[in-house]
Structures are given as structure tokens and as C-alpha cells.
Automatic annotation (TrEMBL):
GO terms for biological process: maturation of 5.8S rRNA from tricistronic rRNA transcript (SSU-rRNA, 5.8S rRNA, LSU-rRNA); maturation of LSU-rRNA from tricistronic rRNA transcript (SSU-rRNA, 5.8S rRNA, LSU-rRNA). The keyword Nucleus applies. It is found in: Nucleus, Nucleolus; Nucleus, Nucleoplasm. This is Ribosome biogenesis protein ERB1. Belongs to the WD repeat BOP1/ERB1 family. The gene is ERB1. Residues 31-41 have a biased composition (Low complexity).
Length: 761
């Protein structure tokens, strides 16, 4: 097919094209203008005669006229042989058929378009003409084009032409259907009915009724003859069978490489498992007691069965009772099978899972390096003396500053003074019965001795006793020499000169304008200081302080002039500070924050420690401000004690904990000890040695070593030393109070079994 114009030989002006005139022209004029064209019948230079040429033309389907249409303009030029040559217009390279592929306008082939970046054109068409680069639209035109989308707009650029690549509606529909997962065209019905070609018609009669021939059931005689012939040849040796060759072994007897075993998963890439997936833990395997024929030691006797049936299902160790059967066929169905499966499904579905990384830590490295208890002696290890005499529980006890005497108070209402080394009773007073004021007021039927504390000065010999609503200050008669008794009584009697019977007087307001004395202004009375009755005075009692509520705790200041009492039921006046030299009592707080459990003075600073149920507050009495609020971390505090240096506090609680709080380090516990199995009743520091102890209702006393360093960078050293056992539990009460010897490593304890004990080294 010609692809270019044939007008390069002769200029087109020499032979103007022949055009057909209108019908009005005469045929003669037309004939005169038409130049004769050589006939195909004439001889040509091809060497073929006319008959052969005619046969070739008849056999060939090619017709030159098919390449051109009737409307094409034809002109003639003179050929090289002097004959006229028709010149027709160039053939359009583009196909008009819809079924053929559209030719590309840019025919650069595999040459990248980037090679034409420096040229004004981007390639060449099929005629060799340059394909110019389209004009680039401005930013505003591009913006408007994205807003007003033209028909078939895709936003893509044709890399061959540089223009916009638009799609027709049919192409867009095709893309939409493919993305939606549909078939590309609607001409195909994917759900058309199935045509059953072979089973659509049921055949009643057989296709052929010819009976089977007999030869199909009788062995072939011809084949039997051939087989016998082969057997005879094998027996005679004329036919030698070859050994079965192993295709996996080569001629040298070696295993072929292709037949060797190989790892199927050699090239398999490991896929990272889902990090969020945590497999469920496996069920616990059954034990011997779940067997249908368990050993006799796993079976329950009648008493154990009754105990197991009486227990709540949530408290039982197992959900079943071990049973024994003679054989497996006698085992009935398991009644809890469905319930166990249901609970297992609930655990798999609802129970949260967590992955815990196992740490390979040497257990010995977690244990702190503590010194041996043998190197920390002395500390109490044995019971040396037992003080017996009280008919009820021994609630409280106190050791004289000299260490020679021990005072105890019990629920029987008696106060007793013992000789510490021998356990001999030196003095006794039924103080509640001896007080006639209680008989006049009616008293309380459950009054008992709640606190006994010796005065910190050795030369006074004063013993303070808290019984019911009263505080008794006395010097036990016959225990000390005359000088000590006189000193103690004189110390208590000095305050009568300042006693104002609940009133205060000021010099500037006691005199009126007429010069006459006025009555002192009344103030609120928290306690009343009175003189004892004759029975109490005969026993050495000097002063009785009448309070409004029961006194639970009592503690002396180190200088011996002040003592603090705790009245938990008194509300805002639960803490009272009493001055013995002036016989006055005052409440340092306007309101109480919680139920007060205990109160103590600082060893040498003007600070007051007040313990509530959960906190220990430290108040500065001189500045009248709150210094710290310690948080021991217990639910209900029972007692506390302050270290002789005043920087550390230990607290015991009813939830079986003993906490050590370092006030220089933090307000929260530095160490929490859980060595007791029941409530902790009392904790005490030794006044001189690095020891402290804790007493509990489990009838045990824990002795611990504590070293407080001068270097603030070092933490206190706590070492458990000894567990003292000797008291008995009575009515769920064990050891109620403890007290250290002032100098020796001896410990005194009061128990609920009605005895007091001395523990020595």
C-alpha cells in the first residue's frame, strides 16, 4: 500500500489534472482532453505474453482501485517511459475501523520523552513531521480546569503527546465496573440457568439390549498360551529378567542428588507473628485425686466429707470430691462437665491476658546482705521472770527509770508494783475501789486500768495511772525511801498554789474602777485537779485529775512537768496537755481530725505527735503549726513510737503491719514489715540500744535490730533477730503492751493471759 505522494519526478504544472466537466459539455471535448492509457493487453517489458498476464490478473484479488475512492482528485504526469502516470492524493494513515487499535500520533517508539525536554517538539508522526509540544496552561487555568471538569477529564497527562489524557464515557463505565467487582460488560449473564445436556431426560429403556457375549467371562486361551510360553522360556534360561533398577541410584551406586532428601521449608520466609496475640494458658492437667481409682490417701473420710460439704463452694480447694470405682465402665457421667466447659469458655472470652517476660535473676541477689544475728547481740532471747497476780488481762505496764521496779495495771482495777529481777510484788492498790468519788458518781461498771507510766525523773518516784475518766498521780508507799517519797509528794503539791478551780486571773482585769476585787473570768474547763480521798492518800496518791471522758493513753514529757493524755471519745478535746507544776489542763486543738489513737512528745523538741486512724501528724507547739503529716500506709493504726533521735517513727496497725517512716527521707514508709499473723498491739524503741520490738495478738513478740546512721545518705539498717513466744492467746488477745529496760537489753511484756513477763539475754 503506497504511503507517500508520487509527485517528485515532474512538476505538477506541466500536466494539469484532468477534471470531468458537467453534462453540458460535449463528448468530443471530453475525448480530446483524455490521454490514452496503455492497455494491459499490450506487451510489457516483463517478458509475459498477453495471455499469461491476463491469467495472473484474473487469479489475483488485488485491485488498485480499491485503494482509492471515487471522490479522490486524480492528476496525471508524464512517466519515465513517456506515458501518462496517475498521481492520487496521499493515503490517510489513520484507520477508520472501530475494531482496530488506534495508532499513536507520536511514533518515537521506546525513546523516553525526557530526551525531548530541550526541544520545542516531543516527537514525530508517521509522516516524519514534528509533533509540537502543547501549550502549558497557567495556574489559574489549571485551577479552573479542576473546578469545571470537562467531559472525560482524568487529571492525567499523556506522556507521548503532552496533552490531557481524556477517557470516553464507555471507558469510564468499564473502569467503574471493574473497580466495583462487576463484569466488564452486561452482555454476559453469570447466573444463567444450567442446561443439563445429559441428565435432562430420564431414560427408561437401556440404550442397547444386546446380551453380554460369553468371551467376556471366559479367560482367553490365546493369552494363556503366550504366558506359558514365557514361563517355559524363563525356566529353561532362555529368557533372563533384568534386576529392577533403582532410579534414585546412579551407575556407581551413589544416591542421585535429585533424589536426596531436602528441607521442604528451606526457602520459607518466617512471618512475624501478631505481637498483640497472646495465646490462652493451657488447662491444668488432672492429678491423682481426679482418677476413677485414686490411691487411698486421696480419699476423704466421713469427717472430711462433712467438712467439705459444709464449706462454701468458693472456699473449697477442689470442685469435686474424690471417688473410687472398681472399673472404668462403672464410672458415671461427670456432673460438672458442662459447667467447667462454660467457665473455661468464659475465661477464654472475657478474662484479660498479659504477657510477662521471665527474668533470669539469681534469687540470692535479691536478698540483701544482712549481718548475722550472732554479731548483733545482746538482745532478749528467753523468758526469765513471770509476774503473776492479776485476775484479768494485764492491759498496761511501765518500767521505772532506774530499772528496778515494774508497774502493771489490769482489767481487775488494780495497780501493782513488782521488783523487776525477782518478780516479787511490792505494792498493790485497787484504785477504782479506793476512790470514793467513783462511788458518789456511780462510776462505770467496765472501768479498768488503761495506762500506767512512771515519771521520767528518778528522784520523784511518781506513778501516773489512767483508770476510767480519772488520772491518779501517786507515789507508792513503802516502795521507795523517805527522801524519794517526800520529793514526789512535794512536787505534786506545788501546783496547788496555782490552782484556780477552773478559772484564770489577769492582773490588769482583777480590779474594778472602785478598787474592789472582781471575780476571775471563767474559762472552759477540760479537766479538774482535785485532792484524793483518805484511802487514796494513805496509799500515796497526791493528785487526781478528773476528765470528762475515758483516758486511753498517757505519756510524759522528757523534762517531767507536762504529760499528754488521749480521750478518743471527747471529740475536739481528745488530746489534753496537763502541767503538773500549775495543775492546769488545756486542749491544743480546736477540732479533731479523725479519731485520735495515741499521742507522744518529741524526745527533745517542742513537737507533739498525734496519731489518728491513718495518719501521724507532727505539730510544733511553740509555733502552733503543723510540721508534717506522716502516712504509714495502714488502714487503722494501733500505736506508734518515736526514735530517741527523733528522726524516725515506727507504727503498728490492726491490719498486721509494722511500718518504719524516715521523716528526713519522706512522709511515706521507708520499710513495711509483715511478720505477724494478727493485729499489732504495741511497738517500742529501746531508749539506748539499736533495738525495737512489736507485739501482736498472735502471742508473739518480734525483736529487730535497727541502726540509724549519722550519714543522711545511708538508709537505716533493719535486721530481724528473734521471735519471742510464751504468752497464750485469751479471747483473741495476745500481747497487749511491751516496755524496754532503760539500760539493759531486757524486755517486759503484758499479755491477755493475765501475766507479765521479763525477757532477758
Amino acid at each position: 500500500m503506497p504511503k507517500r505522494q508520487l509527485d517528485n519526478d515532474v512538476e505538477p504544472e506541466e500536466f494539469p489534472p484532468l477534471t470531468m466537466e458537467s453534462d453540458s459539455e460535449s463528448e468530443s471535448e471530453v475525448e480530446s482532453q483524455v490521454v490514452s492509457v496503455p492497455s494491459l493487453d499490450s506487451d510489457s517489458e516483463s517478458g509475459l505474453d498477453s495471455d499469461e498476464l491476463r491469467e495472473l490478473q484474473e487469479e489475483s484479488d488485488f485491485n488498485e482501485q480499491d485503494l482509492f475512492s471515487d471522490d479522490d482528485e486524480v492528476r496525471y504526469i508524464e512517466g519515465a517511459d513517456g506515458k501518462p502516470r496517475p498521481i492520487r492524493p496521499p493515503i490517510d494513515p489513520h484507520y477508520s475501523s472501530d475494531d482496530s487499535d488506534v495508532d499513536e500520533a507520536n511514533t518515537i517508539g521506546n525513546i523516553p520523552v525526557s530526551a525531548y525536554e530541550k526541544f520545542p517538539h516531543i516527537g514525530y508522526d508517521i509522516d516524519g513531521k514534528r509533533v509540537m509540544r502543547p501549550a502549558t496552561a497557567s495556574a489559574i487555568d489549571s485551577l479552573l480546569e479542576t473546578i469545571d471538569l470537562p467531559k472525560g477529564w482524568t487529571g492525567l497527562v499523556d506522556k507521548n503527546t503532552g496533552g490531557n489524557l481524556n477517557l470516553s464515557k464507555e471507558e469510564l463505565d468499564l473502569i467503574d465496573r471493574v473497580q466495583s467487582g462487576k463484569l466488564p460488560t452486561d452482555d454476559i449473564n453469570p447466573y444463567q440457568d444450567t442446561v443439563e445436556y445429559f441428565t435432562s431426560k430420564q431414560e427408561v429403556m437401556p440404550l442397547t439390549a444386546t446380551p453380554e457375549p460369553k468371551r467376556r467371562f471366559v479367560p482367553s486361551k490365546h493369552e494363556a498360551k503366550r504366558v506359558m510360553k514365557l514361563v517355559r522360556a524363563i525356566r529353561e534360561g532362555r529368557l533372563v529378567l533384568k534386576d529392577k533398577k533403582d532410579h534414585n541410584v546412579d551407575d556407581d551406586g551413589q544416591m542421585k542428588l535429585s533424589s536426596k532428601l531436602y528441607d521442604v521449608w528451606e526457602n520459607e520466609e518466617s512471618k512475624p507473628e501478631n505481637s498483640m496475640h497472646i495465646p490462652a494458658p493451657k488447662m491444668t492437667p488432672p492429678t491423682h485425686e481426679e482418677s476413677y481409682n485414686p490411691p487411698p490417701e486421696y480419699l476423704l473420710d466421713d469427717e472430711e466429707k462433712e467438712k467439705w460439704l459444709a464449706m462454701d463452694p468458693s472456699e473449697r480447694e477442689t470442685d469435686f470430691m474424690p471417688q473410687k470405682f472398681g472399673s472404668l465402665r462403672k464410672v458415671p457421667g461427670y456432673a460438672n462437665a458442662i459447667r467447667e466447659r462454660f467457665e473455661r469458655c468464659l475465661d477464654l472470652y472475657l478474662a484479660p491476658r498479659s504477657r510477662r517476660s521471665k527474668l533470669n535473676i539469681d534469687p540470692d541477689s535479691l536478698i540483701p546482705e544482712l549481718p548475722s544475728p550472732q554479731d548483733l547481740r545482746p538482745f532478749p532471747i528467753r523468758c526469765s521472770v513471770i509476774f503473776k497476780g492479776h485476775t484479768g488481762r494485764v492491759r498496761t505496764l511501765s518500767v521505772h527509770p532506774s530499772g528496778q521496779f515494774l508497774a502493771t495495771g489490769g482489767e481487775d482495777g488494780s495497780v501493782r508494783v513488782w521488783e523487776a529481777l525477782t518478780g516479787r510484788e511490792l505494792w498493790r492498790l485497787d484504785i477504782i475501789k479506793a476512790d470514793t468519788y467513783n462511788d458518789a458518781e456511780g462510776g462505770h461498771p467496765d472501768d479498768r486500768i488503761d495506762a500506767v507510766v512512771w515519771h521520767p525523773k528518778v528522784e520523784t518516784g511518781i506513778l501516773s495511772v489512767a483508770a476510767g475518766d480519772n488520772i491518779y498521780l501517786l507515789v507508792p508507799a513503802g516502795v521507795f525511801d523517805g527522801h524519794v517519797e517526800n520529793t514526789g509528794l512535794e512536787t505534786m503539791e506545788r501546783g496547788w498554789a496555782y490552782q484556780t478551780d477552773g478559772r484564770t486571773a489577769k492582773a490588769s482585769t482583777n480590779v474594778d474602777d472602785d478598787g474592789e476585787d472582781k471575780e476571775p473570768a471563767p474559762v472552759k474547763t477540760y479537766a479538774q485537779w482535785t485532792k484524793p480521798g483518805p484511802q487514796l492518800a494513805a496509799k500515796g496518791c497526791g493528785v487526781v485529775v478528773r476528765c470528762t471522758k475515758r483516758v486511753k493513753k498517757l505519756d510524759w514529757h522528757s523534762k517531767g512537768d507536762y504529760f499528754v493524755t488521749v480521750l478518743p471519745e471527747s471529740g475536739h478535746s481528745a488530746v489534753l496537755v496537763h502541767q503538773m507544776s500549775k495543775h492546769t489542763s488545756q486542749s491544743p486543738f480546736r477540732k479533731s481530725k479523725g479519731i485520735v489513737q495515741d499521742a507522744k512528745f518529741h524526745p527533745f523538741r517542742p513537737h507533739l505527735f498525734v496519731a489518728s486512724q491513718r495518719y501521724v501528724r507532727v505539730y510544733d507547739l511553740s509555733a502552733q503549726s503543723l510540721v508534717k503529716r506522716l502516712q504509714p500506709g495502714a488502714k487503722w493504726l494501733s500505736s506508734f513510737d518515736v526514735h530517741p533521735r527523733g528522726e524516725n517513727v515506727i507504727a503498728g496497725s490492726f491490719d498486721k503491719r509494722v511500718t518504719w517512716v524516715d521523716m528526713e527521707l519522706s512522709e511515706k514508709p521507708f520499710k513495711m514489715l509483715r511478720y505477724h499473723s494478727r493485729a499489732v498491739r504495741d511497738v517500742k524503741y529501746h531508749p539506748r540500744l539499736p533495738l525495737f520490738c512489736s507485739a501482736s495478738d498472735d502471742a508473739t513478740i518480734n525483736i529487730l535490730h535497727c541502726t540509724v546512721y549519722d550519714d543522711l545518705l545511708k538508709n537505716p539498717l533493719l535486721v530481724p533477730l528473734k521471735i519471742l513466744k510464751g504468752h497464750k492467746i485469751s479471747s483473741s488477745l495476745g500481747v497487749l503492751q511491751v516496755a524496754w529496760h532503760p539500760r539493759e537489753a531486757w524486755l517486759f511484756s503484758a499479755g491477755g493471759d493475765g501475766t507479765a513477763r521479763l525477757w532477758t539475754t
